[in-house]
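Morning run. Coffee first, then this:
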Amino acid sequence: MALTRIITATMFLLLTVSLAQAQSAGDTLSQLQKAVACAPPPAFGPSPIGLPQIKGGQDTVPRTLFGAGDLFVIGGGATQGLQIGQRYFVRRPMAFAHGQNGNVPMTQTLGWVRMVAINEDSAVALVDIACESMSVGDYLEPFVAPMVPPGADSVDTSGSPDFASAAQVVFGKDRRRTGVAGDFMLIDRGSSDGVTVGTRMAVYRDLATALPLAVVGEAMVISTAETTSLVRITMSRSAVETGDYVVPRKP
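And here it is:
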């Protein structure tokens, strides 16, 4: 009887995984949406408390790292509201050394997963998309398909730069201090500063000389938090760096 239950449970899990893989294969996210979803969230701050975490692998050999197509066990189940078919971002708390501000807490997005088996206190998730390797201790947040503003994949230099509203580049994905066309970076102005999604921005660098600011590239605001925003670099003459100025273009 026990063996029958094990076989039945295994068949159920394999069927569920097959369905989840089929749904994932038919995912309608564009490549640009996937890139935005893999970018760092625009808000700084400590990670939320009490969210489900990765506890370990679903393999005969112990594992701590996971990628696309892998299964792993989640420390949370039906009692935490998890349901089969739900998708979740997998994220990791990190810190970024930011001048006088010291170590700034931030979050790295590692990818997203789909719930394929649930019981009361645990669940099994299938990795749909891996932006980076996931590991034991990473936490889950509900997945929301990103909205991409029109023109985020094109260059438009129309409009005069508003230097009175200039922001500065903080860092990019994986705490990188440089980025090129197609990369995403965080800036130190947000919705409370009047920054809005879809705003086009010119990127400049102060060369600390008597010469004017040097033109580095162009960017567009993809998402905002209260005091920070995520931008996509749409054009770069040279690498965009931490500390460069991003200046909104007036319509």
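The longest strand covers residues 103-118. Good start to the day.
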